[in-house]
Amino acid sequence: LCFAGDARVRSQTGVLSERRGSYPFIDFRLLNNTTLSGEIGTRKKVKRLLSFQRYFHASRLLRGIVPQASLYLLDEDYLGQARHMLSKVGMWDFDIFLFDRLTNGNSLVTLLCHLFNVHGLIHHFQLDMVTLHRFLVMVQEDYHSQNPYHNAVHAADVTQAMHCYLREPKLANFLTPSDIMLGLLAAAAHDVDHPGVNQPFLIKTKHHLASLYQNVSVLENHHWRSTIGMLRESRLLAHLPKEVTQDIEQQLGSLILATDINRQNEFLIRLKSHLDNQDLRLEDAQDRHFMLQIALKCADICNPCRLWELSKQWSERVCEEFYRQGDLEQKFELEISPLCNQQKDTVPSIQIGFMTYIVEPLFERWAQFTGDTPLSANMLNHLRRNKAKWRSLLHKQHSSNRSNDHSGQVTGSQEKTLNEEETP
With CB atoms 3.0 to 4.6 Å apart as the test, which of 156, 163, 194, 287 could cross-link to 108 if both were Cys? Predict the structure, then answer.
């Protein structure tokens, strides 16, 4: 198990890309920062810098120096607006981007502190507020703010969605305080220390995490282990019996591992079977846990079900992250992964495929589980409207391309064909 020590140091430095063999060390944060990457220049300097980062952070941890929470440098008007937004945290049109600005980039910490209080978890589990805050700051800081998509704002957005799902009557009537705490913690930490690249990239670059987890749910395992490391380091649950904390750690793992998109069909088939047979018994802890897994999966990919103004921002962010991976693959002469080629994979086409094959099947089953609730109906309506808008944008792109073709401009594919025809 990779719970503490070295794993925590790696997560704090952001060094998640040691390649073996002929591949160089890569710090994704540095490569995403064009200014820094231009200044570094050579592989030798990168290695020296990363070694210094490891030593510096390790020495701080060994001396017991814990990173302090960032100060809230906000005036009363901003704080008042943030508090007003929290009063509507259960609304589906909650604007997490605005909330993050109002909290000076502390949306995840602020949101979780509020939700733990709203759900009575602080009192029920006798949690120390200072320790809780320190733990949440650790989680928030272990997200890479340089990532366009997989960052702390995404974690806060998923947590807010999870809160909405936990309030659905079909589920809420059976949930225990432990279920609620697990659901919120898993949502907050489900992508912690995400490097901004996907599992196939880690595997083909022979990343140490891929070897550690034998190419199975590599990122999800890392998110889980990192979370457990922070829980233990913060001692948030140290006052609880050992068997209770062990159970919490295992259930957190089960929830976070369920977000692996490669397991989508596995969960859909099981959910369909339960719904068709009407054999879900939410009085049973095992069935409740399964539905928490489904709820977290929904929360993780709920962006297409948001208002268009919010959904579009998330779509552009995730595609930007894909394109950055593609640029990285191209730079190091690797095969460009699917959806990561900015010249071929457009945002509308990516989103339409994602909605059709991943989002719609899951949310239609979720709506079948919850019944015709206002939230489920609202999400499906947004999903259909957003898909129609992406189709319209895709049609405009195709029309524009055809117009360029007719105006005498030669497209890339046409140029290739002409070159082939001219070749003897």
Answer: 156
